[in-house]
UniProtKB/TrEMBL annotation:
The UniProt record lists the keyword Signal: yes
SUPFAM superfamilies membership: Pectin lyase-like (SSF51126)
Species this protein is from: Nitrospirillum amazonense
InterPro entries the UniProt entry points to: PbH1, Pectin_lyas_fold, Pectin_lyase_fold/virulence
Protein name: Parallel beta helix pectate lyase-like protein
The keyword Signal appears for this protein: yes
Signal sequence region: 1-22
Record keywords, A-Z: Signal
Annotated region described as Disordered, given as residue ranges: 21-46
Superkingdom of the source species: Bacteria
Length: 710
């Protein structure tokens, strides 16, 4: 091709000979428009800003809110109205239908006037009931109002039925057979007799009467509605009688058989000294003030008033519904952006324990149900501290359905409201599918529960997460329970009928935050986080590989090499007191299984006589326990390291540092071998609490000046 210079010459020749090419274009081909440009003003150079000054100049554009549509509801309104202030709807169901026509392109507010809204059936919120395309639906109390969503009816027309015994009666609809009633906003007890355990001998068919003084039970009518309740070290078990003949109390199945195997059973509780036994629900048992009995066949309710109660003026409420609210979409289309502010939820009764299943409690709302395969021939001999048949059922435990249920939902808020006079767990968030009216479980994301009162409940206040394999290892991300915030709630007088339930329970969840709540007056634990006893953590638990338990020998009980979704749990700034009033097991704050990033900090725990303040139970790992104040307990910190299982390790990699305690001791193996460390914890003598401890006490519990964030 020749030299480089020759090639350049050839290129120039080709360009100059190309059509339209000119080395000297004319002036007309190069116009120069006359553009007048204003000069910059003096001092136009911006000041160099740093740090906070620069951050202060940042303005993040937000989408301006569109004016919301407001629908009004009043007990004195009419469902033929238009939802305006002048013509409000009468029922929440009518307002719900109206929301679906409006929420596609704007926010909708349903404003509830004060009064009681008695539901004919539960309210069920699907994806079409929440905000659409980033908009919001909020159900809220009108200014200064207290709207009550109720599943019950008033009972009136009382008359003195038995003057000698002081028993009154009123008519109720035939067939109604509740487990709870409330008199003047206070739970009343079903007719109950406490009996000595030594009066009976336990069998797989029921109970044998060995004390002749109890032979009169065979003459009590309506025997199939009598219930046997037994409380132990950490369980509260319920089973129904089939019939009583001579010295035999024959029990309904499978409830009775499920209640006599496992751990802490009716027949063989962990501690005979603390176990108690009750016979419940017969008119012959109605002897104490504040107790009642319903006769569904006759349509009659009997009640023995407490001192000072006048049934002519008293408010007596009989629940009709087993739940009030279901919020559930699907995993592909969850309910989004739904809020409840200032609303009170009241009056339900969960009825399943009154049937053949009973309530075979295992711990904190989880229970056995249905016939168990390979049931042991000698259940009390061979399965009173676990067995293969029991361990095969562990991953199939059910959960108690809550009165208000949330699953397959995102950005749900309950704020400034009340959960009271409910016959089970009040609020269930992302629980098992079997605990949801919708049939959809789990999948609760970004749910907030703030500034509510939970009180006078038969079960626990809040139950988060499920207990099945799908709960701890979700097969798809949308099924996980994540980002649950429980803050500034007052929780008191809960778990009155199902005593084994913690006030707040989180089983499996990612980044749950339990912050600045006040928890008191509970029979069992205040705050529980974690589930599974370590069996579902990476590598499993060696304690469940024993021949006696044989957990991993059972079909479907897997050894996972990946962690559960439980991580980054925070229990911070809570005030927990006067808990553990019934049971020796558990703790005011209790934890189970591995929780990377878990933090228990700056909580104030007190008045738990004979009990445990902070309990890290089986498999608890990677937890930091710091700057807590623990007072008037027996054990301030208990770490269950399963010492019988050493040198195999279970609870390990935990740090307790900077805590203050008085009248308590630490228990458990805290050694370098387990990497469990105690650093700079301070035992306080007398009343000389250090300044740091007093600051934690003062900051704990509900923060009145902490404004809601949403």
């Amino acid at each position: 091709m020749g030299s480089y210079a020759a090639r350049l010459g050839l290129l120039a020749l080709l360009l100059t000979s190309a059509p339209g090419w000119s080395q000297t274009p004319s002036t007309a081909d190069r116009p120069t428009p006359d553009l007048s440009v204003p000069g910059l003003p003096p001092g136009h150079q911006p000041e160099r800003l740093y740090g906070e000054k620069l951050l202060a100049t940042i303005k993040i554009p937000q989408r301006p809110p569109s004016p919301p549509v407001v629908l009004w509801v009043s007990p004195t309104g009419s469902d033929t109205g238009d939802g305006s202030p002048a013509h409000p709807f009468a029922t929440p169901a009518r307002a719900q239908a109206a929301v679906r026509d409006l929420n596609r392109d704007r926010d909708v507010i349903v404003r509830l006037a004060g009064g009681v809204y008695r539901l004919a059936e539960p309210l069920r919120f699907s994806a079409s009931d929440g905000g659409q395309a980033g908009h919001l639906v909020r159900w809220e109390a009108a200014d200064g109002a207290k709207p009550v969503i109720s599943g019950g009816d008033r009972v009136t027309g009382w008359r003195l039925a038995d003057p000698a015994k002081g028993i009154w009666a009123a008519d109720i609809p035939r067939g109604v057979d509740p487990r709870q009633i409330w008199v003047n906003d206070r739970l009343a007890r079903r007719a109950t007799l406490e009996v000595g355990r030594q009066a009976f001998r336990f069998h797989d068919w029921g109970m044998e009467i060995v004390d002749p003084a109890w032979r009169g039970l065979a003459d009590v009518p309506d025997q199939k509605r009598i219930e046997v309740e037994g409380t132990g070290w950490f369980t509260d078990r319920h089973a129904m009688v089939e019939r009583i003949e001579g010295d035999r109390i024959v029990m309904q199945q499978p409830g009775w058989r499920n209640n006599i195997i496992g751990y802490d059973t009716i027949a063989r509780p962990v501690s005979e000294a603390s176990a108690r036994l009750f016979l419940v629900n017969a008119l012959a048992f109605l002897r104490e003030p504040g107790q009642w009995y319903a006769d569904p066949a006759a349509g009659r309710l009997y009640y023995k008033p407490r001192a000072g109660e006048d049934l002519g003026t008293a408010s007596v409420v009989l629940p009709r519904l087993s739940m009030l609210i279901s919020i559930a979409g699907t995993y592909d289309t969850p309910v989004k952006d739904l809020q409840f502010k200032g609303v009170s939820f009241q009056h339900t009764s969960w009825l399943e324990p009154s049937g053949p299943q009973g309530y075979a409690s295992q711990q904190s709302g989880a229970f056995l149900a249905g016939p168990l395969p390979d049931y042991p021939q000698e259940p009390m001999r061979d399965c009173s501290w676990g067995c293969w048949a029991f361990e095969a059922a562990r991953n199939h435990w059910r959960q108690q359905p809550a009165a208000i249920q949330v699953a397959a939902a995102t950005r749900i808020l309950f704020e400034g409201g009340e959960f009271a006079h409910l016959g089970q767990v009040a609020l269930g968030i992302g629980n098992n599918a079997d605990a949801n009216d919708s049939g959809i479980g789990l999948g609760a994301i970004a749910v907030e529960v703030s500034r509510n009162l939970f009180t006078d409940l038969s079960g626990g206040a809040i139950m988060v997460g499920g207990v099945t394999p799908d709960a701890h290892h979700p097969p798809r991300p949308e099924m996980g329970v994540r980002d649950i915030l429980i803050r500034n709630n007052r929780i008191r007088t809960v778990s009155q009928d199902y005593r084994e339930q913690a006030a707040i329970l989180v089983t499996y969840a990612t980044a749950p935050v339990i912050l600045h709540n006040d928890v008191s007056d509970t029979p069992y634990d205040g705050i529980d986080v974690g589930w599974g006893w370590g069996v579902n953590d990476p590598g499993g638990s060696s304690a469940y590989r024993t021949r006696e338990r044989g957990y991993y020998d059972q079909p479907g009980n897997l050894v996972y090499d990946t962690p559960t979704i439980l991580r980054d749990a925070v229990i911070f700034g809570n005030r927990v007191h006067s808990v553990k009033q019934w049971y020796g097991d558990g703790g005011a704050i209790y934890h189970l299984s591995a929780d990377p990033g878990g933090l228990i900090a700056e909580n104030y725990i007190y008045d738990v006589p004979g009990g445990i303040g902070i309990y890290l139970d089986e498999g608890s790992r990677y937890l930091t326990v710091r700057n807590n104040v623990v007072d008037r307990v027996d054990v301030w910190l208990n770490v269950n390291t399963l010492d019988f299982n050493l040198p195999r390790r279970t609870a390990m990699d935990d740090l307790a540092t900077g805590n203050w305690f008085r009248d308590g001791r630490a228990r458990g193996t805290l050694t370098d071998y387990l990497n469990n460390r105690m650093v700079d914890n301070v035992e306080v003598k007398g009343d000389a609490w250090p300044v740091g401890a007093r600051a934690v006490m003062e900051r704990s519990g509900i923060q009145q000046d902490d404004a809601p964030r949403r």
